[in-house]
Write a structure and sequence with these properties.
Elements: E1 2-5, H1 8-14, E2 16-24, H2 28-33, E3 35-40, E4 43-45, E5 49-53, E6 56-64, E7 71-78, E8 81-88, E9 98-103, H3 106-111, E10 115-124, E11 130-136, E12 144-146, E13 149-155, E14 160-169, H4 170-175, E15 177-184, E16 194-197, E17 204-205
Antiparallel strand pairs: 1-2, 2-6, 3-4, 3-7, 5-6, 7-8, 9-10, 10-14, 11-12, 11-15, 13-14, 15-16, 16-17
Length: about 210
């Protein structure tokens, strides 16, 4: 049995959190006989989507993103057998996370003839979900957002780090500004982006 939550990107695009509860087994008939139930903040939910195929039964719960959402659990029962899993939803602690953008040393950038790689680090005292998007030519009023390569949260002595890596070509790096844009889950708006360019030594906070 597995309980999963959709990616932060999907959550921000749809303003919904989607959870999938999946049970599987070799005997398709037995798997289909399991009844899946959901609880949200301890209350049983009846609205859900279910589908079965090839020994896999999936139940999907869609919830609006709001501050009171704290715990989601699913249970699968058949006769006297019950298995369950739950997910705790990270909450915003009132403090904005710290966002920084880093580039390689000049000599390492010069050693690669075609590409430049940037890293966006998001640090917070508590574990949270973030949607991170990169923008090239971010000095424009309507920049085009791109996905980087995101990594799961990593725990440190003082909190949690989430990182995203973005690679561009040398031509764009010489002429454009790049920004890391962070949307904390549950927040009503994005944080001010952090920008970096070939002419900067360090990342700066953009103004809106």
């Amino acid at each position: 049995m597995k309980l999963t939550k959709q990616s932060p990107k999907e959550m921000f695009n749809n303003n919904q959190a989607r959870f999938d509860c999946v049970i599987s087994g070799q005997d398709e008939t037995t798997v289909n006989q399991f009844e899946i139930t959901w609880q949200v903040n301890g209350e049983i939910q009846t609205t859900r989507e279910q589908r079965s195929s090839g020994g896999i039964k999936t139940s999907t719960m869609r919830l609006s993103v709001h501050d009171s959402l704290s715990n989601v659990s699913c249970s699968a029962s058949k006769d006297d057998v019950t298995v369950s899993q739950d997910l705790t939803i990270p909450k915003i602690d009132g403090n904005e996370p710290k966002v920084t953008v880093h580039i390689l040393p000049v000599e390492d950038i010069a050693a690669n003839p075609s590409e430049v790689t940037m890293v966006c680090l998001v640090f917070s005292s508590v574990q949270q979900d973030y949607y991170i998007a990169w923008a090239e030519n971010s000095a424009q009023n309507n920049p085009i957002y791109q996905d980087g390569i995101d990594f799961p949260p990593q725990k440190s002595d003082k909190g949690y780090f989430v990182s995203s890596i973005y690679t561009t070509n040398k031509t764009n790096w010489q002429s454009q500004m790049f920004s890391c844009n962070v949307w904390p889950a549950g927040a009503k708006k994005a944080m001010l982006p952090r920008a970096v360019s070939n002419s900067m030594n360090n990342s700066i906070e953009c103004k809106k």
